[in-house]
UniProtKB/TrEMBL annotation:
SUPFAM superfamilies: Lysozyme-like
Record lineage: Bacteria, Pseudomonadati, Pseudomonadota, Gammaproteobacteria, Chromatiales
CDD domains linked: Lyz-like (cd00442)
Gene3D superfamilies listed in its UniProt record: 1.10.530.10
Record organism: Thioalkalicoccus limnaeus
Residues annotated as domain Transglycosylase SLT: 2-179
Coiled coil start-end: none
Protein name: Transglycosylase SLT domain-containing protein
Domain of life: Bacteria
Length: 182
């Protein structure tokens, strides 16, 4: 019994926590150096800037590995989960297309690879630059078909969020240029 309690407590203690300073890309990566390596690898593979990856994750999950959308009246509204808040169908599409069958939405490395892949598809299908955090986020949130239909146009809350994502990306980009010099 005691061994079980110790194992459960150890598992809870080792659960990833969001970075303490989510407004500072340098602090995020100082606290989580593996995240920097994973984000750079995704940038090299897919061409999506690290700051865009961070901005999307910040908006989607606040850097919480096990984030889920809020339930309304006890009903889960979406299958979105993890750092990228990817829904089941899109996550399965990613795993099939990339061959990364073991990818987990609770893995930061898999999440940034997913974001890189998704933004790459958005660029190829919709012509959205990978540096355009605002429109990439709208396509990410609404899906490629929703973006093409303009489903975001009457969602003021989503347009505000997309503007924030763009601001986060610009801020993170400026910070990353500075912390590399430190």
């Amino acid at each position: 019994m005691l061994a079980t309690i110790v194992l459960v407590a150890a598992g809870c203690a080792s659960a990833p926590k969001p970075p303490r300073q989510i407004d500072d890309a340098c602090a995020i990566f100082a606290e989580q150096p593996r995240w920097y390596r994973a984000a750079r690898q995704a940038e090299r593979r897919w061409g999506t800037p690290v700051q865009v990856q961070l901005a999307i994750i910040r908006a989607e999950s606040g850097f919480r590995h096990n984030a889920r959308p809020r339930a309304t009246q006890g009903q889960l509204l979406s299958t979105a989960y993890g750092y990228p808040q990817a829904i089941d169908g899109t996550w399965d599409w990613y795993r099939e297309q990339t061959g990364n069958r073991r990818a987990r939405r609770t893995s930061f490395a898999d999440a940034v690879d997913f974001i890189g892949w998704y933004t790459d598809v958005s660029q190829r299908q919709l012509g959205i630059s990978k540096w355009d955090a605002h429109n990439q986020y709208l396509a990410y949130h609404e899906g490629h078909g929703g973006f093409q239909r303009g489903s975001y146009r009457n969602k003021d809350w989503l347009l505000r969020t997309a503007r924030r994502v763009d601001q986060y990306a610009h801020t993170y980009g400026a910070q990353l240029r500075q912390c590399r010099r430190r």
